[in-house]
Amino acid sequence: MTVTETAPVRRSHTPGIRAIDHDAAEPLADRCATAAPSHPRPDGQDRYTISEVVAWTGLSAHTLRWYERIGLMSDVDRSHTGQRRFSNRDLDWLGFVGKLRLTGMPVADMVRYAELVRAGEHTFPERQELLERTRRDVLTRMAELQDTLAVLDYKIDMYAEAAR
Length: 164
Prior knowledge:
Blueprint lengths: L5 E6 L6 E3 L7 E3 L19 H8 L3 H10 L6 E2 L5 E2 L2 H16 L3 H13 L4 H40 L1
Antiparallel strand pairs: 1-2, 1-3, 4-5
């Protein structure tokens, strides 16, 4: 079993995006993905080797082992020979971790988030705060990038005008 969150899901108003509805009485679905996942294999037939996960995710085998060692992934299933066997749920979690990496979230915070998920629903407030803090950081970086883009556009326009 890996670290993922589950909650009832309802369709949002944006096509392809799922929204969480904590009050819905629908079956539980993976909350880590923002769009319906497309997995290489259907559930029940989803036992991937580490090399298959490397090919699917673009992560290295070393990174996948490291994620497991530091607690970012937990309880990856093993075959009778001890080889890791990843599931669709693991792929979803790795996709979510990839999104967290893109936000610039420190690895320690990602591991803390994984620990909180494993601890259960009573950690929702702390998880929310962690994600809200990361969101604020992303918005700040986006504003900085917008400002940088404006400077680049100004310079590009200046050179284009000079060339005329």
